[in-house]
Write a structure and sequence with these properties.
Protein name: EF-hand domain-containing protein
Distance between the termini: 5 Å
Number of strands: 2
Number of helices: 4
Order of helices and strands: HEHHEH
CATH superfamily: EF-hand
Strand order of the largest sheet: 1-2
GO molecular function: calcium ion binding
Bound molecules: calcium ion
CATH architecture: Orthogonal Bundle
Oligomer: single chain
Keywords: Calcium
Organism: Paralvinella palmiformis
Pfam families: EF-hand_7
Largest sheet: 2 strands, antiparallel
């Protein structure tokens, strides 16, 4: 993504990866989006679905650092 250094992208990734596992699970994604959309469960789940569809290249239901970086790069 233009204007975003790898360090900035990593900071966003780490904010989503709340258990520090190195991957963003669907649950972590939904939890983060729930805060963003102020508890709007339907919206959070719909956005999480779209984000995973666009970033989860190996379709294991989690976004790895490489997948996240490639998606934003
Ligand atoms: Ca995680
Ligand atoms: Ca994946």
């Amino acid at each position: 993504m233009a204007g975003h250094s790898e360090k900035e992208i990593k900071a966003i990734f780490d904010a989503f990866d709340t258990d520090g596992s190195g991957e963003i699970s669907r649950r972590e994604l939904v939890n983060a989006l729930l805060q963003l959309y102020k508890g709007d469960d339907q919206k959070a789940k719909a956005v999480a679905y779209n984000v995973l569809k666009e970033t989860d290249f190996d379709m294991n239901g989690k976004v790895s650092w490489n997948e996240f970086k490639n998606a934003l790069a």
